[in-house]
Amino acid sequence: MAVPRGPGRHGGGTRLRRSSGRATPPRRHRLDAANPSALPGPAAPPSTGPLSTAPASAPPPSIAPPSAPPPSIAPPSTASLSTAPLHTAFGFTEHPGDANLPGWREAGTGRPLLLLHGWSVPGQAFTGQAALAQRGYRVIAPDHAGHGLSVRWRPAAGGTIAGLADGVAGLIDALALRDAIVVGWSMGAMVAWELARGRPRQWLESRVAAIGAIDMTPRLLTAPDWPHGLHGGYTAAQAEQMAAQVRRHWHGMVPLVGAGLWADGVEPPAHEAARVREWMAGCDAGVLAELWLDMARQDYRQTLREATLPLFCLYGERSRLYRPALAAAMAALQPAPRVATIPAAGHSPHLERPQDFNEALLRMIGG
């Protein structure tokens, strides 16, 4: 998601920090059973030094990587799964979608790391994260409906966040993923949060170990009790206007919308910006409009307050879409989050500064 207006994210201070602590609900999980320092329950107060990984006085029980689904959960069927890769690109092997599943790309054979792209930019946006396959992860980046490999795929729920989450859940089951770390960028963060809100707890906790968000707000619209929406001031009427423009003039809007992906005050390399615009132009304008409106209907604040899985957030220091105060507001919502800021990055830190982003992500997940 990139709408190029609003203040940039500037400022110094600690780049990687932990939020103030909050009470922890029962059955809080650890992010990485192999690393006792990863997400150790309630967060310590912020410090001015590097992120502390010292365990809390009463860390939650860890999640052992399951070797098989619990007895009460039937093993997922893979009968409809297309196993023939389309081709290899940017370090990923790409798989076409079918009538039941979105398309996806993947690299590596380790612990599942599921990366969910944002509005109007397909999973190619995670090209820089294919390198994490060399760090012990099976990196999987599906394409949502109307995007990339799934430009013609439609979930039963249509162009909605719930429909996209259904597609991701179907892929998790089809690939028999367990102990997965799910990280959503922009709109993809809402899809990840929808998994937490809409899936049965037993399903979620048997498959997903943690949920992360990249530069996203839980509520796109601003409200008296939430000044942290898009650009710090966004209304339902503006969302309707945006959707109408996307339906009519999407290809003409691509350069302007694409500019919002990059850090405030930064001109991206011409070839890289052109590549991203090409990805964006290939998306289905009708689906994009539907998704934009549905994003504007969502409010995941209560979902984050009640989360039973570890949560973490990564923000671009110079995001054009969200104000710096969003990071602190998210930390106040979540039970035991970690929050990292990627220096000199905008709304798309994984695209703009992939090495810095990857290292920050690995610190988050204990890898």
Automatic annotation (TrEMBL):
GO CC terms of this entry: membrane
Keywords, ordered alphabetically: Hydrolase
Location of region: Disordered: 1-82
Pfam families recorded: Abhydrolase_6
GO molecular function, one term: hydrolase activity
Basic residues: bias regions: 15-30
Protein name as catalogued: Alpha/beta hydrolase
Residue ranges, compositional bias (Pro residues): 57-74
Family matches, as Gene3D superfamilies: alpha/beta hydrolase
Native organism: Cupriavidus cauae
Sequence ranges assigned to domain AB hydrolase-1 in this UniProt record: 113-360
